[in-house]
Amino acid sequence: MKHSRIVKLTLILVLFVVTTSVFAQITKGVYLFEDGNVQHELKVAENYVIHSVYEKSPAKFIKTLGGLYTTENDHLKLKLEFNSDYQKDSLKTLDIPMQLEGNNLVLGGESKMVFEPQEVNAQDLDGTWLFATRGPDKGQERRGDSRARKTLKFLLNGRFQWIAYHTETFKFSGTGGGSYSAKDGVYTENIEFFSRDNSRVGASLEFNYEVKGDDWHHTGKNSKGEPMYEIWGRRVSSQ
Prior knowledge:
16 strands; eight-stranded antiparallel β-barrel; eight-stranded antiparallel beta barrel
């Protein structure tokens, strides 16, 4: 009888731990929270998250940060790779109270932000990519995770963002993002925030794309109308 009770208690404990773990897991996707004219956007992958903040009208970039995340005891713990406000706040880690209310993700203590999940819109180029080299591919040296200087592209559910940064010095060089589509070899970006020049918001840029193995070949014309050829490598791990 005593043995049976111990077994039952053990099963209950295991069930509690598993249930807690499941509820602590944030579902992959794009989440939005609007505070008046200010848009907060969260893009969440398996173990990586990016938070960007910008005003919609008139357009004004405010900040962005991102990195590896874990959840523990109702807290979102972030080990940052980049932080556009690093020169102001020197933050490399964050520990934020969090709750899951239905499908919504609630972040913060007294000043809570309720992030609502956006519709799933899976496309060809979804994932995280690191700038590798200028094309065409002739076996030249490539950039990637081994180098501290990085340019990351994060694409998920019809939302894109690129970020240029340095993981050792935390120097932030710029970012831009918005909505995108990738279909039949045509990649289109619609810019909704741009840290270097707010006047770029509203522009729509069209390129050609081809995925070869783990490489994304990105061709077309840049904002100056000049030919461009970039190769981006799929980021296998965010470590």
